[in-house]
Design brief:
The complex is a heterodimer of chains A (111) and B (114).
Chain A: E1 4-6, E2 11-14, E3 19-25, E4 32-38, E5 45-51, E6 54-58, E7 61-66, E8 71-76, E9 85-92, E10 100-101, E11 105-110
Parallel strand pairs in A: 2-11
Antiparallel strand pairs in A: 1-3, 3-8, 4-5, 4-9, 6-7, 7-8, 9-10, 9-11
Chain B: E1 4-7, E2 10-13, E3 19-25, E4 31-37, E5 43-50, E6 56-57, E7 68-72, E8 75-80, E9 89-96, E10 103-105, E11 109-113
Parallel strand pairs in B: 2-11
Antiparallel strand pairs in B: 1-3, 3-8, 4-5, 4-9, 5-6, 7-8, 9-10, 9-11
Chain lengths: 111, 114
């Protein structure tokens, strides 16, 4: 079993849809959970960061972490064509620790 | 967040040659990381660049192939040596945030080996 599994995609939704992106993991030591957005031919951009279990909201984006189930999610409300990108989940176990990434899912939001 | 600049942004390289990628950060950071992202794949950590000491390499990556320098707290280089087509990837420099719990990336260096 891989340390981090991410839904493979690709995912195509109409504009305005609610998008749910998910990752599961196996390493109980992970405490820091991040979502990155990567546009084509660009470096990953940190979108959301969460420590331990719980929810975090930032505008149209909500990150959820359930450590008991080893499951994290990113929700995008009122999705826009500009949200079309690859989304990567990443996890770390300590400050300045290396990150383990999911494979990424490519999202396309149709106008 | 830190501003991270990488050079070159892209290059086409001949098989058997070596290329050095530079990473400049606009603030002093303790740890810098080098990742590789092969086509259609996720990011894999190559090594952690420590200022004043040898880099720490991940399993599957060796210093002879990927020598790293870290002369000060704002700069690092990664060399991809004796390149083959399998080395065609995006190479990304990253640094920890001020809290130490977040990681920021540069724009990446896109290498194609022919």
């Amino acid at each position: 079993q891989k340390e981090v599994e991410q839904d493979p995609g690709p995912l195509s939704v109409p504009e305005g849809a609610i998008v749910s992106l998910n990752c599961t993991y196996s390493n109980s030591a992970f405490q820091y959970f991040m979502w990155y957005r990567q546009y084509s031919r660009k470096g990953p951009e940190l979108l959301m960061y969460t420590y331990s279990s719980g929810n975090k909201e930032d505008g149209r984006f909500t990150a959820q972490v359930d450590k008991s189930s080893k499951y994290i999610s990113l929700f995008i409300r009122d999705s826009q064509p500009s949200d079309s990108a690859t989304y990567l989940c990443a996890m770390g176990s300590g400050a300045n620790s290396k990150l383990t990434f999911g494979k990424g899912i490519t999202l396309s939001v149709r106008p | 967040s830190a501003v991270i600049s990488q050079k070159p942004s892209r290059d086409i390289c001949q098989r058997g040659t070596s290329l050095t990628i530079q990473c400049q950060v606009d603030s002093q950071v303790t740890m810098m990381f080098w990742y590789r992202q092969q086509p259609g794949q996720s990011l894999t950590l190559i090594a952690t660049a420590n200022q004043g000491s040898e880099a720490t390499y991940e399993s599957g990556f060796v210093i002879d192939k990927f020598p790293i320098s870290r002369p000060n707290l704002t700069f690092s280089t990664l060399t991809v040596s004796n390149m083959s087509p399998e080395d065609s990837s995006i190479y990304l420099c990253s640094v920890g945030g001020s809290s130490g719990n977040t990681i920021y990336f540069g724009e990446g260096s896109w290498l194609t080996v022919v």
